[in-house]
Write a structure and sequence with these properties.
The complex is a heterodimer of chains A (138) and B (436).
Chain A: E1 46-50, H1 58-64, E2 72-75, E3 85-88, E4 94-97, H2 104-109, E5 116-123, E6 129-134
Antiparallel strand pairs in A: 1-6, 2-3, 2-5, 3-4, 5-6
Chain B: E1 6-17, E2 26-31, H1 33-41, E3 46-52, H2 57-66, E4 71-79, E5 84-87, E6 98-100, E7 107-110, H3 112-119, E8 124-128, H4 134-139, E9 145-149, E10 167-171, H5 175-180, H6 185-194, E11 200-203, E12 209-213, E13 216-220, H7 233-244, H8 250-265, H9 270-280, H10 285-288, E14 294-295, H11 298-301, E15 305-309, H12 319-330, E16 334-336, H13 338-342, H14 351-367, E17 370-374, H15 380-391, E18 396-399, H16 408-413, E19 416-418, H17 421-432, E20 434-435
Parallel strand pairs in B: 1-3, 1-5, 1-8, 3-4, 8-9, 9-10, 10-11, 15-16, 15-17, 17-18, 18-19
Antiparallel strand pairs in B: 1-2, 4-7, 5-6, 11-12, 12-13, 14-20
Helix pairs in contact in B: 1-7, 1-9, 7-8, 8-9
The chains are: A mainly beta (138), B alpha/beta (436).
Chain lengths: 138, 436
């Protein structure tokens, strides 16, 4: 009977082998982690994800409802109560909170990346919801 | 800031993550190699003092030298076992199925002179000793701050004549926490502090961590996200804490350590990890310490009753339901399985019997604060229970192992739909844990 084997250790710096990418099955918005030498997950676009607590954020509270699809947005350059927020580009009004599973974006922001994007979908009632996608720039 | 030299002490293992499905078998150096990766990523000045079978000596030396160790020495030899750890489930969605080959034949012979030489002049010693040779290891420590991560009864430290650790470290999955202290963090910390330990760190997986000292408890949230693996993630937390307490207060060091650990769980590529750690350290301390995450102390989880809605019938393949229940129990939650608790109706059951079961299931649902539905197929009972839970504003998490869920009432109204146990567990911690 034949056999297979794991022939060597592969995870050395710069070996560019053996690293696992993010589970492709991960929930929306997790993006994916590139592997290999000099990979930088801050450069990875963030797939569509849903903002949290939209109904208690400034945009909704001001009676503006939810922004329509196509609205330009960005990740704000300041934490709000320890949370990352997404706001409109024009008047910097907060639309919603970024899920904490995407907190890694904060280290990218503090390393010089910006995360502009757009609203990909929204609904005001019966449940207020806003989905966005983001594309990093540096 | 005074200079810091860390001596890292413990075994070098070979971690073999067994392939699942069409994945590949993953083999890499484990044991203290995990902590070494974090020390390397943080640019720490450290020495590696490892214990291993002789066949691993060259590989271990090469590994530590490639990962920034200023000095590498073998302080003990393992005989009788190859120091190979088989890992069935890398993500720790539930029990990971660790299997140390030839565990009962495993013997360690320490080179005490090499140990003393290795720890000499270290400002901090980060040790991962086994209880079998804890006494011998401890006698080698004479100077410096001692960090000990070990599955041992800290009440016995005095008996060993061991210097009180600066930080004693344990995880909620350890046998000591679960058995000796009955899953009670207060009992654990009291015993450790009575024994002279200055601080006790309890790592609570995706529920964060708590540091007990001088009557104070510092709680740090976990940075929960979908992960690639959880092997050695806690060791990375230890290493980061050891490095960063030199620069920051306990709360800040713990907050950075939580983020470093989360990054380690997100990749097995060392270059990606190091880059992530470098950018993590770009977050100012006043921001990292307030960055929200998930805090869910172990003791509070048992109070979380989780209604498992599923076609949990004996004529259905119940493996995904069993796996979910095991995972929930592993993390300290209380899964409630209505069919198993209230019975499976036979064909031809009477109206009275049907009513009894329906009422019992509804009564159980009323007690629960979360519903997890296992969607094996379009089972009407499961779908009705999902609807009832949504109407009651309960968090609803859908476990969709066969990726069959398409209906928008499920995909859009449920909190989360995930085809993996890891995704379900992460969502549960996010929903139940309070953000701090």
């Amino acid at each position: 009977m034949g056999s297979t084997g794991s022939s060597r250790f592969t995870d050395y710096p710069g070996s560019n082998a053996g690293g696992d990418s993010k589970d492709s099955n991960a929930e929306g918005g997790s993006g994916s982690t590139a592997t290999g030498a000099d990979s930088d997950d801050c450069r990875t676009p963030i797939d569509e994800f849903e903002l949290e607590d939209v109904e208690r954020c400034a945009y909704f509270v001001a009676g503006r409802g939810v922004p329509p699809a196509g609205t330009d947005v960005h990740v704000r350059n300041a934490l709000d109560g320890g949370r990352l927020t997404v706001a409109t580009v024009g008047d910097d009004t907060v639309i919603g909170y970024v899920p904490t599973r995407l907190n890694r974006l904060w280290r990218c922001v503090r390393s010089g990346y910006s995360y502009p994007g757009e609203v990909t979908g929204s609904s005001a009632a019966p449940l207020a919801g806003v989905t966005v996608q983001l594309t990093p720039t540096q | 800031m005074s200079s810091q030299t860390i001596c890292l002490v413990g075994q070098a293992l070979v971690d073999v993550t067994l392939k699942r499905g069409r994945g590949e078998t993953k083999m890499r150096l484990g044991g203290i190699a995990h902590a070494a990766r974090a020390l390397w990523a943080l640019g720490a000045d450290y020495r590696a003092s490892f214990i291993a079978p002789t066949y691993l000596t060259n590989d271990a030396e090469r590994f530590f030298n490639a990962h920034g160790a200023k000095r590498t020495s073998q302080i003990g030899i393992v005989t009788g076992a190859p120091n190979v750890m088989l890992i069935e489930h890398a993500e720790e969605a539930g029990p990971q199925g660790y299997e140390l080959l030839l565990r009962d034949e495993h013997r360690v012979t320490l080179d005490m002179e090499a140990l003393r030489e290795a720890t000499n002049a270290a400002t901090d010693v980060l040790a991962f000793p086994d209880s079998a040779y804890l006494k011998e290891i401890s006698s080698g420590f004479t100077e410096g701050r001692l960090y000990v991560d070990a599955d041992i009864d800290f009440g016995m430290l005095n008996e060993l004549g061991m210097p009180p650790p600066e930080v004693a470290i344990l995880s909620t999955s350890s046998n000591t926490f679960q058995t000796t202290y009955g899953g009670n963090a207060t009992a654990l910390s009291d015993a450790a502090l009575r024994a002279g330990t200055k601080r006790i760190l309890l790592k609570e997986n995706r529920g964060g961590s708590r540091l007990f000292k001088d009557g104070l408890v510092i709680q740090t949230p976990a940075q929960v996200r979908p992960i690639v693996h959880s092997v050695g993630v806690g060791d990375c937390f230890d290493a980061a804490l050891c490095v960063l307490r030199q620069r920051y207060d306990d709360a800040t060091a713990m907050a950075y350590a939580a983020s470093v650990a989360a990054e380690y769980a997100s990749t097995t590529d060392p270059t990606t990890f190091k880059k992530a750690v470098t950018t993590t350290m770009a977050i100012p301390p006043d921001e990292i310490v307030v960055l929200q995450g998930v805090s869910l102390p172990w003791e509070s989880r048992a109070q979380t009753l989780i209604y498992v809605a599923a076609p949990d019938f004996d004529y259905v393949d119940q493996q995904p339901i069993d796996a979910l229940a095991d995972a929930l129990s592993y993390h300290g939650f209380s899964p409630r399985l209505p069919v198993r608790e209230n019975g499976q109706l036979e064909l031809g059951a009477t109206n009275a019997e049907r009513r009894r079961v329906a009422n019992a299931d509804l009564a159980l649902l009323n007690k629960c604060s979360v519903l997890v539905a296992v969607m094996l197929y379009d089972d009407p009972g499961t779908l009705i229970e999902v609807g009832l839970a949504l109407e009651r504003k309960l968090p609803v998490i859908i476990f969709d192992p066969y990726r069959k869920v398409r209906n928008p009432m499920l995909t859009e109204l449920a909190t989360t739909v995930s085809s993996t146990l890891d995704g379900v567990v992460a969502a549960l911690f996010e929903q139940v844990g309070h953000r701090t």
